[in-house]
Amino acid sequence: MKRRSWLRHSGGMLTAALMPCAASAQQAVRRQLRFSIVLSNPHPSELRDQQLWLYLPASESPIQQIDSVSVSAKHNMLSDALGHNILQLSFTRIAPLATKVVSIAVDVLLHDASEPAPLKDFRDWLTTERYIETSDAHIQALAAQLRQPTAQSSGRAIYEWLRQNMHYAGYIADDLGALYAVTQRSGDCTEYAYLAVALARANGIPARMVGGYVTDRNIAPRAEDYHNWAELHIDGAWRLLDAQKEHWLTPAQQYIAFRFYRDKITNPVGLAHRFHSNGELQIRL
């Protein structure tokens, strides 16, 4: 792992260019996402030294880069070796029963998903992980049934099996994983993604689960809009596989990645999907 890099910012409504663009802006789609974070002190006493870390859109050249970030509170920006961008909010004191609202606007540049994205080490995306039980006999057996002569045709076979055999159960609060999905044939978008990744890895295709938002316009996402999908590394680039929404390969430019799932801690958000706090604040995003 590379040492985590720290990009520090301070002041209100600060706009900062984070990453240079690998392609020209004329070739990119620009999207703005706006969030309001409500932080409440539920106690009749003052809270001190409260911190919150949350994911912003990831930076992954040449596919996706943050162009600017505007935050209505003092903050720091962090990044890690996977390309995650993390917003850190720190509060020295929060008054009893007080509520704070922090506004965030992020401009993202999205490029053609067919752009080459070489892997530094493809083995990182072929392993068994928590919730991605690639080596389990049930998953190995199904992967063998779906194996085709090429990685792309195998990916398409995985997509079609999921689309035709999985039952969408609606939102489920807990992660259940690929093994649950293959045995129960049910789950929410997270289980669809876990199983797609497990089946791809079992067939020797580097794959990852991604979390974020799907949109064809500027939006203020709601919590329930957060979505998980799979990406398979085929022919030198990450390819979209989202059987829950019935999207294979396209429309990749509508998918804005915030988190690349790994069963290890690479930043202060830890193993959480969206954010992590170290205090007693109640947080609504």
From TrEMBL:
- Keyword terms, alphabetized: Signal
InterPro entries xref list: Papain-like_cys_pep_sf, Transglutaminase-like
Superkingdom classification of source: Bacteria
Please give the PANTHER family that the UniProt record associates with this protein: BLR5614 PROTEIN-RELATED, CONSERVED INTEGRAL MEMBRANE PROTEIN
Pfam families documented for this protein: Transglut_core
Cleaved signal peptide residues? 1-25
- The reply to whether NADP figures as a keyword in the UniProt entry is no
Organism from which the protein derives: Collimonas arenae
Name assigned to this protein: Transglutaminase-like domain-containing protein
Boundaries of each Transglutaminase-like domain copy?
Answer: 181-245
